Amino acid sequence: MLEGLPNEYDIIVVGTGIVESVLAAACARIGKTVLHIDTNEYYGSEWASFSLNGLIEWTQIQENPVTTISPQDDNERIMPISNPLKVFRNIQLKWNIEKTNEQSLTDENDTSKMTLDVLEKQSRKFNIDLTPKVSTNKDFYCNFQPFV
Predict the structure, then answer these.
(1) Residue 55 and which of 36, 41, 91, 133 are 20 to 30 A apart at CA?
(2) What is the pTM of this model?
């Protein structure tokens, strides 16, 4: 175990989705010692948001998950944490745009024809949610009404 970390916890929370994070925070707030861990390399579980490149990497990990990890030390024991309620299945990444466009290679400011290369260059300017959400709002420009 790492130096400076406790050997015992009152509660261990696996996952960093909104539910798990609120639960871990609530337990810590009432004085419980909480170990909050995640099997993913990103925060948010099924509520995560990715850049385009991050989403491409995520789909590749979903297609080929890492299944074997060996202990690094004789005193270590691997405890597999499975997710029987896997939210995402049958993930396919399909592009309906060209990879490159010779004309756009000469003029970088031309966005009249979107290509995969242009999207990858703009990748950090937008995020894609794994679980899309609707934010309701009411102001001068936008007024969401409930369906009746």
Answers:
(1) 36
(2) 0.62
